[in-house]
Write a structure and sequence with these properties.
- Its main location: cytoplasm.
- Belongs to the actin-binding proteins ADF family. Twinfilin subfamily.
- It is found in: Cytoplasm, Cytoskeleton; Cytoplasm, Perinuclear region.
- Keywords: Actin-binding, Cytoplasm, Cytoskeleton, Repeat.
- This protein is of the alpha+beta class.
- It has two helices and two strands.
- A two-stranded parallel ribbon has the order 1-2.
- Strand 1 (about 5-10), helix 1 (about 15-35) and strand 2 (about 45-50) form a beta-alpha-beta unit.
- The radius of gyration is 29 Å and the shape is elongated.
- The termini are far apart.
Length: about 100
């Protein structure tokens, strides 16, 4: 049996900022009420822009993610082959700004 899933559909940029903030603040209140009143623990929360991307394959991959058997770590690039480059010549200046 699968755990309860909460799918949150945000209308995106078709509404004002004020409406989006109100929408987001109501989401947490709704989840709290559902968990308290119905004793359901919503373990998976998903946010989508529109219902177009909400397919059976998408839901299955979200609920049962494939574990990567071979995780590739960051490969640090090799430094220069033993040479640090040419030495820099620094000219010293005297008290009056004159070069020695």
């Amino acid at each position: 049996m699968s755990p309860p899933v909460f799918i949150y559909s945000m209308p995106g940029y078709t509404c004002s900022i004020k409406e989006r903030m109100l929408y987001s603040s109501c989401k947490n209140r709704l989840l709290d009420e559902v968990e308290r009143d119905y004793q359901l623990e919503v373990t998976k929360k998903m946010e989508i822009d529109s219902g177009d991307g909400l397919t059976e394959d998408f839901l299955y991959e979200e609920m049962h993610p494939m574990e990567h058997t071979l995780k590739q770590a960051f490969a640090k690039p090799h430094g220069p082959g033993g040479k640090r480059g040419n030495k820099r010549l620094i000219k010293e200046t005297g008290e009056n700004g004159e070069e020695n």
